[in-house]
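Revision sheet: structure tokens.
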Amino acid sequence: MNSRAVAASDSAKVTLVEMRPEHSTGNGRDAYVVTGSETTAAMTGDWWVQALVYLMVLATVVSGADYFLNFRRRLEQASRSRERAQPT
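Predicted:
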């Protein structure tokens, strides 16, 4: 197995955390200092962070559904009250 194949397969497991410029005073060449972190597929290091994200998404969806259903109910009630208020 050549080194390029290893680097390509391992690159999916690393996340770029920081990239900052480093100014050289000696040889005149500037460079970047890169910091990375090893990750696993679709998981953060802390399981509770992932669980908290899913709970917040669930709460947002439930809140949106509740708002939409109540909004429709209020529109229907307003329409019925307008119909009752109109003289025939």
